[in-house]
Every structure is written in C-alpha cells, then in structure tokens.
Design goal:
single chain; about 0% strand; about 475 residues; two-stranded antiparallel sheet; about 70% helix; mainly alpha
Amino acid sequence: MEKTPRYVRWGYEVNASSDGCIDAIDSYFHQVLSYGRNRKVILEAPLHDKDCVLGNILAAHYLSSSDHHRAKSYLEAATSNLEQATHYEKAVFEAVNYLITEDRDDDLAFEMHTELLKRFPKDLVSLKRAQILSFYMGQPGPFLDLVQQVLPVNQEEGYIHGILAFPLLELGRMEEAAAASRKGYEINKEDAWAHHCLCHVLHHECRFKEAVEFMKEVSESWPSCSSFMYTHNWWHVALCYLEGGSPMSKVEEIYDTHIWKELEKEDAVPPEVYLNALGLLLRLDVRDALDGLFEDRLKLLAARLTDQTNWYLEWHLDILIVWALAKAGETSRAHELLEGLKFRISKMNKKKQQVMQKGIQLCEAVYEYAKGNYKQALELLGLDFDAIGCKIIGASDEQIDVFNEMWCQLLLKTCKPSTAKEVIRERIKVRDGVPFMWRLLEKSYAMEGNAEAERAGESAKKLEESSYF
C-alpha cells in the first residue's frame, strides 16, 4: 500500500500507511507520559502497518525486558524498512535500538538521546526514556540540563513540568521542584508524576499532613495508572503517615487497601507492586515495627518472592527481595539470588562492573542485616557509608534513604554510639521534624551516658504528641 506522510502528536512526520497505526503510537505516547496501565497499546501499531519503523521499534522497546523473542521480530521489521523511514523515525530508531542492546554503554545511550532531542525537542517520550536512563545512572544533573534544553518549546505541555521537577528535587532544589510540580498540576490535574514530585518536596520538608491531604485529594485519578505508579504514590502517603508519627493502623490500611489489593486486578504487574510493598516493609523493619500483623504480611509476600520470575528485573527490587527472603527465613533462596546477582555482574563489561560494585556490596549488607548479623553488615558498608552512592540500583533519594536508616541502626546495634550520634545529628540538621530520628539520637546519647539524651527524648516526644495528624 502506498504510504503518505502522517504526523504523531509532536507534529513530527512518520511514514505510515494507516491512521490506526498513528493512533496507536499516539495512545502509547499518552500512556507513557501519564504512567498509564495500557502501554501495550503500542503492539497495535504494527497490526495496522507491519512496515512502520516507528511502530515497530517502539513495540520492540516495550517488549525488550519481558519477551526478547517477540522484541527481536519487531526490531527486525523496523530494520528492514529503515530506508523508507522519515528523519524522525530514523533518529528514534537509532537511539532505541542502542538502548535495548545487551551490555550497552549508558553514557553513550544518554548521549544519543541528547542528540535526538536536539533535533526533535518536542518528543517527550524520548525525554522520558532519557529520564529513566539517567535515573539508573544515578545522575540527575545531566538530565536536568537536557530538560532545560527542550523546555522552551514545551512550556504549554503539562507533562514537561513534572519531568522537570524530578531532577530538581533529586538535586535538592526543593523550591524550584515544588514550583514545577504545581505548574504541571495546574495544566493537567491528573498528572500522577507531578503529584508524586510535589509529595516528595512536602515529605522532605516534613509537611506530612499537607502531603497526605494533597495526595488523597488527587488520588481519584490514580486507578488508571500502572501498578507501579498507583502503588508508589500510595507508598509515599504511607511513608508520610509513618514518619509523621500517625497510628500504625493508617500504614496498615494503605498497605492492605492500596498496595496489596492492587494484585487482585487482572492487569496488575506484580513485581511493580512488590517493589513498593517491600519498600514499606523494610522501613517498618528498620523501625523495629515488623512484629505481629506486618510480620505475617512479610511472610505472605516472601512466599511469592521465591518464584524466580520476579528475580533479575531491577536491582532495587532484587536487593529488597534478598532482604525479605532472608528476614522471612528463606535464607537459602536469598543466598541463591545474591549469588545470581554476583554472577550477572561478573558478565558485565569492566566499566559496568565498577559502577555496580556498590550495589552488590549493599545487597550483601542487607542480606547480613536481615539475618541479624549486624557486625558483618556494618563491615560491608563501612563507617563512612552514604546510600546516595548506591543510586545506581534505581532508587530515588527517598527510596534509597532507608538504607541510611538501616546503617544508623547498625551503628547502634554494634555499640558505636559516638559515630551514630554524629551521623544522626547531621540528618536532623537537614530534616528536624522526624520523631524517629530524634529517638535514635536519644538512644545514641543514652548509650554514651550523655545527659543530652533527655533533651533529644523531649524533642521526639513533642513531635509525637503534637502529631502531624
């Protein structure tokens, strides 16, 4: 069939023989930007036009981590029709084709997306791919530069402002991040990523009640989000309850109603749910609050995590699974996963091995911590540990911070109160509204026999009694 030029939502030309193909591509773009549940709509594009390069390469990318065989067939279709593709399609093909290459160089993949966006700055899905890439590289700075590069031509596009907010908050520029989040929300009230970024800011500033009220107000739009985004936004709400000293029943309710219950949906993606469930349970463990009902919930979850189809999907998830399995008594399975991760690192190129070394060290420490081997866990982390150096596992500042909390507990559990005291005091200088941190400071002073323990305890009690909720 003769092809005539057609245009995707950014206004860029695509060589397709069917409006249905373009509609499927545009629907996919919307799903990606909105963190929607129906990203598989991209598989409809090749059904409408089996020769469309853009439809095929995006379908290949969508399947690249879950179905290598099908992904390869879409990649081959895109490659065989490359001569007929438009300049835009060729640019996307080049960047995505390299992105899904085994053992890619992340710096080069990011550079290729940067070049693509210089030529086609309105392509926010390519920008989103670059965001995810930089997230797993633990480098928000270069991504912020990239967003600012394309911002002038996208000012009226709501999703750009939520995208802008995230590197700002990761770089500690909270006021700017809040402004960008609010602008995105003003343009599109259902932008779940903008909701998420504003919650990050409010949480960081210990405005827990305000964060919860805002998130609950906008939560009606979340059921259309992916399993990750839906449960992740509720994870943020639960974290605000937890850090704000609310009754534990509030945390239980969110875990049961908005995280675990997501698994009952036919189109749920279980590993995306497990990531947020585990992230919350580890926070509770670090606070010695897993006993009773939450311990039962952990055992129920750990039973599912023995299924290896949930392994090796994401480093962050793998580390949390190692903790959960070891904590729930599935030590041999936890060790099996840990050894599997080490083997995978041994197969990486030297550059990637060096980058991931801190990630595997963290995983080993978490394994020992879960088994109660606190001395070994601390030896693995060292006395100058900072979890921010482990962001390459694919975790935000808030997600990664639980490992700093774990480290503080390890210092206390191995009778190093002086070191713990200095670390905790520095944390309180940055965020002084978290009762848990004051309780850890109280404990460190008490272990030293320091009279300041009483004052730290009073600060904790004042926050607990004033209750944000």
